[in-house]
Amino acid sequence: MPCDHLGGQEIIELAEAHLRAAGVPPGQWDGLRFRHGENLVGGMWASVVIEIERRGEKWIVTRLDRQSEPIALSEAGLSAVDYASK
């Protein structure tokens, strides 16, 4: 059964479009992380959160979290994840 939310490939496409629009060259994408959250209607899950990370020349899905509760609207959509504090 197909998922009723955006998948990893769509999140990668959104992240790459965001980076290109911001003028960030692909050579500087290594190590960047993005998060995408969305609320779902009428499905098994109320919300889903997907995180991706650029590792060398590839994007990797590092988190797929389907939740029974909706996320806050402020957490919906694509956002860069700042791990500078690690």
Overview of the structural elements:
This protein is 16% helix and 35% strand. By secondary structure, the protein is α+β, with helices and mostly antiparallel strands. It has one domain (8-80). The protein has a four-stranded antiparallel beta sheet, covered by helices on one side. The N and C termini lie far apart (37 Å). The mean pLDDT is 91.
> Helix proportion of residues, in percent?
10-25%
Largest sheet: 4 strands, antiparallel
Task: Give the termini distance in whole angstroms.
Answer: 37 Å
Q: Secondary-structure element sequence?
A: HEEEE
Q: Detail the poorly predicted runs.
A: none
> Widest sheet: strand order?
3-2-1-4
Mean pLDDT: 91
The number of helices is 1
**What's the gyration radius in Å?**
13 Å
Count of distinct strands: 4
Assign the structural class, choosing from mainly alpha, mainly beta, alpha/beta, alpha+beta, or little secondary structure.
alpha+beta
Strand content: 25-35%
Number of domains: 1
Shape: elongated
Summarize the structure.
With 86 residues, this protein is α+β, with helices and mostly antiparallel strands. It is built from 1 helix and 4 strands; from the N terminus they run αββββ. It has one domain (8-80).
